[in-house]
Amino acid sequence: MEIMLFSNGKVAGNTELLEYGYEWIESAMERTKAKKLLFIPYAMIRSSYDERASQLREAFARFGCDVTSIDTVSDPVRAIEEADGFLVSGGNTWVLNKMLHDLGLVRPLRKAILMHNKLYIGWSAGTNIAAPTIRTTNDMPIVTAAILPSLNLVPFQINPHYIEATIEGHMGETRDERIEEFLVVNPHEVVAGIPEGTMLQVSGRTLRYFSANGKPMKLFRAAQEPCYYRQDESIQFLMEHGC
Question: Gene3D superfamilies of this UniProt entry (predicted)?
């Protein structure tokens, strides 16, 4: 497997998508030799699929890659089978997950990634769907008949855009409190909170955490104090969760 799960697409000072992770992406490209990338834009609600595809085409040209958007092909399943890897955009996780299920693309994607070792690069919503379910997304369920099970590429839950903050005057729950609620109801789960500018990577069976800004990952377990993991600290045990 070669899976790259970014918290977000851009950080302050970046002009291109995933710019803060170019060095990490370049290493993955060298390992996988991926050249034909399929872009999956279904999470995008307020932006143009074509514009995002054009941005990615320009960004990934530096790695010698060609990017095709899945909405432009006549046979999405065949496009998945013929691609070397996948780019899955941020946006609304509920819409993205529902579209993949409605179009019958979950099984072909899992087969391509888990059995044929094709590269997967997701950010924000594209990271959420790599978990077993999308129950720890920050997004509103703006579609009806919302579907919870997702690609299940990693055996733990993820909360991208994780922020450890209390806003003055805001009386609603903090992110930590929302995750705590999730764990009260689902005590067997663990949740990895990854802040902006960070990434989880699975290469083979090895899981690593990368941070462009030094921010740690925050790991939540039921009935335990959350703990922090910094880049180069081992988090391999998460790959055994649920086994």
Answer: 3.40.50.880
